[in-house]
Amino acid sequence: MTTSSPHGADREPPVSGLGYEQARDELVEVVRRLEAGPSSLEEALRLWERGEALAARCQEWLDGARRRIDELVAARERGQEEPQGDGSGP
């Protein structure tokens, strides 16, 4: 999210470029800040939207990891060493 905001939202990196651990750690922080009670409704909405995007990014990484594991298991069952996929992230 690269919108300009007086609350610093323009400094947040795009969610699409985050690795799993980065997205997870930021999501934990967003939840902490929401639980602490944001200073305004606008801030709460911004945090909620960022949290939703971060949760979706984490799910993309987890889905990608599951696909890779399934490919490895299937390849092993066929007697191959490596799966046919490219092995990249989500």
The helix/strand order is HH
Tally of alpha and pi helices: 2
Described by the principal axes of the CA atoms, the overall outline is elongated
Q: How big is the Rg? A: 18 Å
Classify the secondary structure makeup into a structural class. mainly alpha
Low-pLDDT sequence parts: 1-8
Explain briefly what this protein structure is.
It is built from two helices and no strands. The chain has 90 residues and is mainly α. α1 runs antiparallel to α2.
Give an overview of the whole structure.
The structure is a single chain. It is elongated, with a radius of gyration of 18 Å. With 90 residues, the chain is mostly helical. The protein has two helices and no strands. It has one domain (9-77). The protein has helices at residues 20-36, 41-77.
Give descriptors for this structure:
0% strand; 90 residues; mainly alpha; single chain; elongated
Topology:
Blueprint: H1 20-36, H2 41-77
